[in-house]
Amino acid sequence: MRRVIGLVLLFLSVSMSAQALSWAYAFVVLDGRVYEVMDVAVLEADLGEVVGEVKTMADDMDGSYYGDASNMYPVGTTYRKVNGEATEDVLAVEDGSGWKRAEYRHDAPFSMRDHLDKVAYGFVGLGLVFFVMYRFRGTR
Fold first, then answer.
1. pLDDT surpassing 80 at residue 16
2. What is the model's pTM?
3. CATH for 20-109, among 3.30.70, 3.30.565, 2.170.150, 1.10.10?
């Protein structure tokens, strides 16, 4: 009985802490390029066409992200081109009632999840080829 009480007290005394990341800056990702969102407003007159939107959120626990992601902006947040600037260098990011400037910082890390659809289509195509070969193998 003393062992059980001792084990219970030991388990209760061990703290189980969860750690989360603290992001250095707000970012968005578009087509494998990471843009830092600056605290600079972009005027409506300077906005071009819509070029993308946030489709996934970055993981606060391990820092991983894939696709068109963000660490601060919710899924569905729109990116637009800034007139007079190359999309490869600058974006405008929807921020509540206005738009903020986002500047290119670096390429996003490689993630197999970005290419999962192509791999799946490849396997489906390969499966169809083998199915057709197997089906018509004995008809000659």
1. no
2. 0.68
3. 2.170.150
